[in-house]
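Lecture 7 notes: from sequence to structure.

We start with a single chain of 122 residues. Read the sequence below before looking at the structure.
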Amino acid sequence: MVALRDGGIATCDIPFSKSLEQFRRDYLALTAQVRETGAPYDLNGGYMVIGTSALPQTELDGAVNIYAGCYNNPFLVWGKYQEKLWRSALPISFQFHHTQMDGGHAARFLENLQEEIRALSP
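Now the structure, written as C-alpha cells:
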C-alpha cells in the first residue's frame, strides 16, 4: 500500500528479485510512480503476492488482516524499530493462510528474512 498525495492509498506490487539492490530500486521507483499518479501498480496474473505494509511512524506489536476470499495471500507488516538496551528490534506481524503454506514454511520464510536483516548489519 502506498500513501497518496491526496490522503488516499493505492496498491503497488513489487516484482521479486534475488538481488536486494534491484528490489530496492524497483521498490523506490514503483512506489514513487504510484504516489505521483494515484494509479495502482499491479503485476498482472500468474504471480504469488505477499502483502506488506511499512508503518515506520507507528510502534506496533501485531496487525490483523481480513481474509476475504481475494486477499488470502501472506501478509507482513512492520512498524518503527525499537531500541532495547544494546540492540534494536523490529517487531513484525506475519499472517498466512494454511491453504498456501504450513507453519514450517512460514518459519523458514521468517528465518530467511532474519538472515537477510543480519547480512545488512556492519
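Helices lie at 20-37, 103-120. Keep this in mind for problem set 3.
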